[in-house]
Design brief:
By secondary structure, this protein is an alpha/beta fold. It is 39% helix and 18% strand. It has a 6-stranded mixed beta sheet.
């Protein structure tokens, strides 16, 4: 059942003993939501804890400072920034059937929770967590504000992407009134790179493939390539590669093909305003946002590329 912010706030006030789930391969928005909501609930005197199927990257571990570690048997499960229960990764089999409330901002999504709060016009799910805190009249603190700011910043590309709205800036401005190093966070999240990350990017650029008169740029992150760099980069560095192809002048579609298993590949698509990435990925039972979306394909690398390329080429042919 779809609900609004007011009802979601009432429900969060009514129940207790929360387990908050982030999606696998966690980014700043899902983690920012989870830790901020957990901190807000704990400030209300409730018990709450966070869980993610995958390890949190070192550069994101400051988010956990917003919460107190609590041990208890959960009664109420909330997912944040999760558009499809399969995105929970290994947690899906354990908790996927038990999600009480899903808080999300993806227009392209599947309904899996008993109740769903979704606002596709929100640049980040953290906008909804901020609105819930306002509705609950729970004052934030510096560390919770840092979590929410992280979600806004990462899902908007440091407020550069077209999903950024006046509301996004208004919330960010209110969060910046708290005392946390927002400039330092932006540097760490967007500009700072290890030597290992630079080496990874060099290999990615060297192997990048171009199609449709250089309007499509495709990157393949194979298990072999990732294993070669695994000692010098973390999971967040691999995830960050998805944004590289679209930075090249003239590229309308940037596509990253990331190998998960021998014949399983996660596809990440970044597009210009001429192409709806979510609709493109829906052709492969995926989804996401208009400018950033994804799906999963099975087969060998050559088979996956053979499936993808005709769809990508058709999108280019119809974007002018």
């Amino acid at each position: 059942m779809l609900i609004d912010v007011k009802r979601a706030a009432r429900m969060l006030k009514q129940y207790d003993d929360y387990l908050i789930l982030s999606h696998a391969n966690p980014d700043g928005d899902t983690l920012g939501c989870a830790y901020a909501l957990c901190g807000i609930l704990q400030k209300m005197g409730k018990r709450a804890k966070c869980l993610c199927a995958d390890e949190v990257a070192d550069r994101m571990k400051y988010l956990a400072e917003a919460i107190e570690v609590q041990e208890f048997e959960h009664k109420t499960i909330v997912s944040v920034d999760v558009a499809d229960r399969k995105l929970l990764g290994a947690l899906d089999k354990v908790y996927g059937d038990e999600v009480f409330l899903a808080i999300d901002h993806h227009g392209s999504r599947t309904e899996f929770a008993e109740f769903t709060l979704v606002e596709p016009d929100s640049a980040a799910a953290c906008e909804l967590i901020y609105e819930i805190a306002e509705e609950l009249d729970v004052p934030l603190n510096d560390k919770i504000a840092a979590c929410l700011y992280t979600g806004l910043s990462t899902d908007t590309g440091c407020f550069r992407f077209s999903n950024t709205t006046p509301r996004t800036h208004q919330i960010a401005a209110k969060l910046m009134e708290y005392h946390f190093p927002y400039a330092g966070l932006n540097y760490m999240l967007f500009d700072m790179k290890s030597k290992g990350r630079i080496s990874l990017e060099q290999d990615v650029y060297d192997s990048m493939e171009f199609y449709a008169d250089d309007k499509i740029a495709l990157v393949c992150l194979t298990l072999e390539l990732m294993d070669r760099h695994s000692g010098s980069v973390d999971a967040e560095d691999f995830n960050g590669i998805a944004g590289l192809p679209r930075r090249i002048e003239g590229v309308e579609l940037g596509v990253t093909v990331k190998q998960k298993e021998e014949k399983v590949f996660k596809i990440s698509v970044r597009s210009s305003e001429k192409i709806d990435a979510a609709k493109l990925c829906e052709k492969f039972n995926g989804g996401g946002h208009a400018r950033a979306a994804g799906c999963t394909l099975e087969g060998t690398l050559d088979e996956v590329k053979a499936m993808l390329l005709p769809v990508l080429m058709n999108a280019i042919d119809n974007c002018d």
